[in-house]
Design goal:
It is built from 17 helices and 13 strands. With 512 residues, the chain is an alpha/beta fold. The protein has an eleven-stranded mixed beta sheet. It has a two-stranded antiparallel sheet with strand order 4-5. The longest helix has 26 residues.
């Protein structure tokens, strides 16, 4: 981005367009110099959204209080109080994170249309305390892609279809679809998504942005509409690893309401940007998980180019490694997700109080049946029905499935392979290039590696690694628990060498 963002002459079209590649550091510097204000940035990003998002549908709704919040933060800066690098920086959050303001929290469901949360989620509280301006909320796959086995990523009954930042007829990935597309197209400085299995890293990869899926327990889940407590986490999505690290620094930490985060303060880095060393790859032992590649020859070609770049940077690669394939993991994971979803959603709905439009998963299923023409015009709710039929967290089938998931991905999986080969991290293609949006058959991606870290509850970072026929593909760095700092350093060094992200162009279809 050029210095034009710092111009005090008003919001020219050129200035606004350049926000599509602005970094958090550059935005902060422009405010610190007095060339820009937070209120001015809010107006600029809104202008980009107004002029562009009609084609992409990434933003669910804007925060009507954003300008007033930005104005107050500008006054703080003028008085010499700067909370940190996010002070005055506009951030979007996924529409499954509670905000205790006038914005609804709907998970993309018409059943929660208009539902106002009583308080902020812990993540939103930490963003606000860090000085970020919550600019609005992003569209998502309904119920975070946990409604139907035929669901199309990025579609919801309340929000409609999000479209890929590079091709309108291609999937944006899910379920943090809007957060990825909004980040890619410059509607915000960065965004927050959530992941249970692939919902941060897959859309990030398909839209050529960086996504960090933290260790489960590093970032609080309180006030976030859940799928599964053993795998759910929120995480940052940004145009650079440095920006994602900055956002992670703000949202990581313990929360007494979420017991899984009890050790987060002791484990979290105060500042994840301290790991941004471009020389990190030199001598770094990294394992190549080959059985999570091989699903598309063009993705393999880009991946092989990435491996050569890693070697040239001094990384010591151990190739040909293999971990439990998805077909072995999925049956166990499915039982875990279905069982935990029923328990978690019922608890979340109860937390909304008597004013909640629905109170239980059973209510949700009944609502969808009663409004099937609007809610289910393309695909059904068989996943919700299967979840309702589960028998609770003490059920032996569930407990056995949890144990199998952990054995396959932890002790016999990531932990074992890293210890045996003395590795800092593992790598594999994040996912394939975006497939066509298909409301009849649903998503039909060919492969990806998100399930390994997701099922284990471990950390992963995806970074753009190249393009297949103009569609972005990413590479994932993943390792054991609390490895975010190491992964951020490796991913940042790779990003600097490869520089694979290309700013998306005007709206167009992939096929004529």
């Amino acid at each position: 981005m050029s210095g034009d963002i710092g111009s005090p002459q008003g919001n020219t079209v050129k200035e606004v367009i350049e926000l599509t590649d602005a970094t958090i550091q550059e935005l902060a510097a422009s405010m610190q110099s007095g060339a820009k204000t937070s209120k001015g940035l809010v107006e600029d990003f809104r202008q980009v959204i107004a002029s562009d998002d009609g084609s992409f549908n990434a933003v669910a709704f804007l925060n009507p209080d954003a300008e007033a919040i930005a104005d107050a933060l500008d006054r703080e800066r003028a008085d010499g109080r700067v909370r940190g690098p996010l002070h005055g920086v506009p951030i979007l959050v996924k529409d499954n994170l509670n905000t205790g303001d006038t914005m609804m929290t709907s998970a993309g469901s018409l059943a929660l249309d208009g539902s106002i949360a009583p308080t902020d989620s812990h993540v939103v509280t930490r963003l606000r305390n860090a000085g970020a301006v919550v600019l609005g909320k992003t569209n998502l796959s309904e119920w975070a892609n946990f409604r139907s086995t035929r669901s199309a990523s990025g579609w919801s009954s309340r929000g409609g279809q999000v479209r890929n930042a590079y091709a309108l007829d291609r999937s944006p990935g899910g379920s943090s679809s809007g957060s990825a597309v909004a980040t890619a197209r410059g509607y915000c400085a960065g965004a927050v998504g959530t992941e249970t299995d692939g919902s941060i890293v897959s859309p990030a990869a398909m839209n050529a942005v960086v996504g960090i899926k933290p260790t489960v327990g590093l970032v609080s889940r309180s006030g976030i509409i859940p799928i599964a407590s053993s795998q759910d986490t929120a995480g940052p999505m940004a145009r650079t690893v440095a920006d994602a690290a900055c956002i992670l620094s703000a949202i990581a930490g313990s929360d007494p309401v979420d017991p899984a985060t009890a050790g987060a303060d002791a484990r979290a880095a105060m500042d994840y940007t301290a790991f941004l060393d471009p020389d990190t790859l030199r001598g770094a032992p990294i394992g190549v998980v080959r059985n999570y590649a091989g699903f598309h020859e063009k993705v393999d070609a880009v991946f092989d180019d990435a491996l050569r770049a890693l070697k040239d940077a001094g990384a010591k690669l151990t190739d040909g490694l293999s971990l439990a394939p998805p077909a072995e993991l999925r049956p166990h994971e499915r039982i875990v997700l279905l069982t935990e979803f029923k328990f978690g959603l019922n608890a979340y709905l109860a937390s909304l109080g008597p004013e909640a439009p629905i109170s239980t998963l059973a209510d949700l299923i009944a609502f969808n049946d009663a409004h099937a023409g609007r809610v289910m015009p393309h695909f059904g709710q068989e996943t919700l029905i299967m979840a309702e039929a589960t028998d609770g967290l003490q059920d032996k089938n569930y407990l056995d499935a949890v144990a199998a998931c952990h054995r396959l991905t932890r002790e016999d999986g990531i932990d074992r392979i890293m210890q045996e080969n003395d590795l800092q991290a593992l790598i594999a293609p994040t996912t394939g290039a975006a497939s066509a949006i298909d409301w009849v058959n649903g998503d039909h991606g060919l492969g990806g590696s998100a399930c390994l870290a997701a099922v284990a509850g471990y950390a992963s970072v995806t970074v753009p690694m190249g393009h297949v026929s103009g569609l972005p593909v990413g590479i994932s760095f993943f390792a054991g628990p609390w490895s975010e700092g190491t992964l951020i350093g490796l991913a940042h060094a790779f990003e600097k060498i490869v520089q694979a992200r290309i700013v998306p162009g005007p709206p167009k279809n992939f096929l004529p």
